[in-house]
Amino acid sequence: MVKYVLILFELHQPRRLRGDLTSGLFKGNLSGVGLWDLLFDEQSNEDILKKVSSNCYIPTTKLLINYLRECGGSVKVNISFSGVVLEQLMIYTPEVVGLFKDLISSGLAEVIVEPYYHSLVSVYEDHSEFTAQVSSQRRLIKEVFEVDPKVFVNTEMIYNNLIANTVNDMGFKAVITEGVDRILSGRNPNHMYSASSCGIKLFLRNYRLSDDVAFRFSNRSWDQFPLFADKYVDWIVKSPGDLVVIALDYETFGEHHRAETGIFDFLTHFINYLSRYGVEGLTASEAIDLFNPADAYDVPVDNTISWADVEKDLSAWLGDREQVAVFNRHKSLLKLINELDMDVIEVWRNLGISDHYYYISSKGGSSGEVHKYFSPHGSRVNAYCLLNNALTILELKILGVLSSSRQY
Q: Known catalytic residues?
């Protein structure tokens, strides 16, 4: 029977592209045009962030502060922020950052590091940009929350042996990733594992129990609806193993499942029932010291995993030829930008946010419905055209520098 849980909440909001990125924008001389304002819909980004803050970030964080304190430290949580969402929070809703500071400074929440731009650069052959983005996020977390995180979770829990080697070399003590059936081969995800390539410790998300809340909580056709906290904690306690990892988007509370579904009552009672059942909610650092790896978790590069969709691979972002085409086009611009030491690297990095590629997916079924739910662009074709046009505008800027720097 399980006596410990590791709860991870992940926060991310992308920089959304303007919906009017049409070919007409390419006409004329682009020099002097504000590239950021040309590409990104900051009004939409501000409006959405304020809405999500009102629906989710503010009430959920206040709830955690109150009820985790009531438990006297027996239940703690872990939180991962993308740098992109922290940037926007500091600009548009600084009161949310203040709440997270209160929660983290209380010792009831540990910050887990992810790549700053919630990007796909960890699947590049060269990991220099990946390490740069992770290092940037580490610095931001230390600046904002005055902590030095030791545990890593990649964008969408993307993981393979090479990624494990890189973050191990960066000094991280553990990685949180997905417990994927094809990798586990019948083994139990509810143990600590180690990377087969370097020995860094791994915590594996129990996707079935996590998705019961993330995706099924308000699904009236689910045979376990309605999900009450006592029943859910009973499932956890009766699970085999040492430690159940529950990892969710923070927006699960109040945004994906609205307040009227009872999601906040569920979270309140969930915390209380964990304490009542004697289940301890650990920070990742506490779990590192408490357990020894049960086995190695071997994930070759050609079998890279993630927490996305049924396939739990890279197909959510790179499963279609259109996705691969814009991904490769975006990647190809990095060498030019670095060689020219141009000031457009921030634009390039924000065009690499994984969401832009996620919106282009052609998947059907339940996975396809999730892709459509998150997309602000109406259709995958529109999402592809907008990203492709944005890359064309960036490329024209780069070519303008190349042209002006030629010697005749």
A: 156
